[in-house]
Design brief:
This protein has an 8-stranded parallel beta barrel. A 5-stranded antiparallel sheet has the order 9-10-11-16-13, covered by helices on one side. It is globular and about 75 Å long. The protein has 2 domains: about 30-380, TIM Barrel; about 390-395 and about 410-500, Sandwich (Immunoglobulin-like). About 30% of the residues lie in helices and about 15% in strands. α12 (about 330-345) links the parallel β7 (about 310-315) and β8 (about 345-350). The chain is α/β, with parallel strands linked by helices. The model is unreliable at about 1-15 (pLDDT under 50). The protein has helices at about 1-20, 30, 40-45, 65-70, 75-85, 105-115, 155-165, 185-190, 210-215, 220-240, 255-275, 330-345, 360-380, 405-410; strands spanning about 45-50, 120-125, 165-170, 245-250, 280, 295, 310-315, 345-350, 390-395, 420-425, 425-430, 440-445, 460-465, 470-475, 480, 495-500.
Length: about 500
């Protein structure tokens, strides 16, 4: 018995000894650079869904920047507000909060839809520029658990997301919430200073001395705001929900480096304790890329990038939040953007726009379900894939640039002549962004002898979703493929090319 007990103790000691100690990050750029920016699960995931949904969904006019523009005379939002609600000095943004009830919100229904859409991670805009927190917060009274819905929206979503085996993303836009300007500078007051969401206008609630309103409108001394609000809210979400991805909108360049480092160290060290590989996503060059993932808003790369990256794109043609008469993109267009991004080593974070009552409009659901239907059949060309030596071929080229050129990206339309490639092991997938009606064959020129970086041997070619035997020939000018009479899908078709 003593011998058995001794062996058990020794086994326990050995197992404890073999357990690696959690890595500890220090608040230096050098230490943070040792974090792997894009773990394998993130590179495998390819598609996530998030949503601009909050108090700004109540007026449902203009866009999610309504809280700002409602104060500017001459703006459509100001005129709309004046006509429907009264002067913004008398009916402020905070007066919308009780109207944001989310009475039809069902976290599990939402997540079921995201799963059917093919998403591998999902989560809320945890806080937009408007200062309203979509979680149960002790830092600000302006949170969804204490006001408006009076429900822990992020908490309910986190439970449903993890029950569905998805990863949780929380996105933060609150770096712009602080009022960063000298109220005595009249020129800046008139402009509303671009780095501040709310204008410090005389007689408006935005410059109120009310201690409670200050937490919504960001009218707080910068030192207190940085420590208690910007950083405090991030730590609160980390502690309460353990997000797998934390994504940041612009204006992090307005946050002092010491706070950026403190957030990063806190999140990564907590993740080490959880035993999770987490991801920090940024845009606008405001965090080092050696430990974070780069994000492009409403735009994407036009060439293959060796480093994984992300695009945040919205399902609509206009506002990120729900507005009346919001125009929604065609399912094929959204799918093509995903396929293009994945071929260039990217991940798509797709935004949807729920109504204030917590319902997701049917036209948006239709797009998600049609995209998800395609991914269910042909997702092997997307999930867990990696880039080939080239992202693709075809006449359609994406513009240069970032968000400033987003209107040009919106005009991009692909056709069957545009081919995108991915790989998984010995398999190459060639995806045509459409079906070549009236054509007997296609030639994939990426397989041309003078284009390939090294010789290739092909064992077989099949068309996913079709039972027809595919006739093919690897020639000098490329891989020639005879087409069956009928298309397995009209949005995009995938040739599975097995190499030896």
């Amino acid at each position: 018995m003593k011998k058995l007990l001794f062996l058990l103790v020794i086994s326990l000691v050995i197992s404890c000894t073999n357990t690696p100690e959690p890595k500890v990050y220090e608040p230096t750029w050098e230490s943070l650079s040792t974090h792997e920016a894009a773990p394998e699960w993130f590179q495998d995931a390819k598609l996530g869904i998030y949503f601009h949904w909050g108090v700004y969904s109540v007026p449902a006019f203009g866009n999610e920047w309504y809280p700002r523009w409602m104060h500017f005379e001459g703006r459509p939002e100001y005129e709309h507000h004046l006509k429907k609600y009264g002067h913004p000095s008398e009916f402020g943004y905070h007066d919308f909060v009780p109207m944001f009830k989310a009475e039809k919100f069902d976290a599990m229904e939402w997540v079921d839809l995201f799963v059917k859409a093919g998403a591998k991670f999902a989560g809320p805009v945890a806080e937009h520029h408007d200062g309203f927190s979509m979680w149960d917060s002790d830092i600000t009274p302006w949170n969804a658990a204490d006001m408006g819905p009076k429900r822990d929206i992020t908490g309910e979503l986190a439970i449903a997301i993890r029950e569905s085996d998805l990863k949780l993303i929380t996105t933060f836009h609150h770096a712009k919430n602080l009022q960063r300007f000298d109220s005595t500078d009249l020129d800046r007051r008139k402009l509303g200073y671009r780095a501040s969401h709310y204008p410090f206008f005389e007689g408006m609630p935005t410059m109120s001395g009310d201690e409670k309103l200050k937490y919504l409108y960001g009218n707080i001394p910068e030192g207190i705001w940085l420590e208690e609000v910007w950083l405090g809210k991030l730590k609160e979400v980390i502690d309460q929900y353990q997000p797998d991805i934390m994504w940041f909108d612009s204006w992090l360049d307005k946050i002092p480096e010491e706070y950026l480092k403190e957030f990063s160290v806190y999140y990564l060290n907590e993740a080490e304790k959880w035993g999770k590989d987490v991801v920090i996503v940024r845009k606008q060059d405001d965090l080092p890329l050696n430990y974070t993932v780069d994000d492009l808003e409403k735009s994407r790369k036009n060439k293959l990038d060796p480093n994984p990256w992300m695009t945040d794109e919205t399902i609509s043609k206009g506002s990120w939040c729900y507005t009346e008469n919001l125009q929604i993109k065609a399912s094929a267009d959204v799918l093509h953007v995903l396929i293009d991004i994945v071929s260039k080593n990217g991940v798509l974070l797709l935004n949807i726009s729920p109504k204030a009552d917590g319902t997701i409009p049917e036209d948006q659901q239709k797009v998600l379900l049609e995209m998800g239907g395609w991914l269910k059949k042909y997702g092997e060309a997307i999930y867990e894939s990696r880039p080939w030596y080239t992202f693709g071929e075809g006449p359609t080229k994406e513009p240069e640039g970032h968000f400033k050129n987003h209107s040009e990206f919106l005009k991009v339309k692909y056709s069957w002549k545009d081919v995108r490639y991915t790989t998984n092991g010995d398999i190459i997938y060639g995806t045509l962004l459409g079906w070549p009606d009236g054509e007997d064959a296609v030639t994939l020129t990426a397989f041309a002898k003078n284009a390939l970086p090294e010789p290739i041997s092909i064992k077989n070619v099949t068309l996913l979703g079709s039972e027809k035997k595919i006739i093919w020939d690897l020639a000098e000018e490329g891989l020639k493929i005879e087409l069956p009479e009928y298309a397995p899908d009209m949005m995009a078709v995938v040739f599975k090319i097995e190499t030896k």
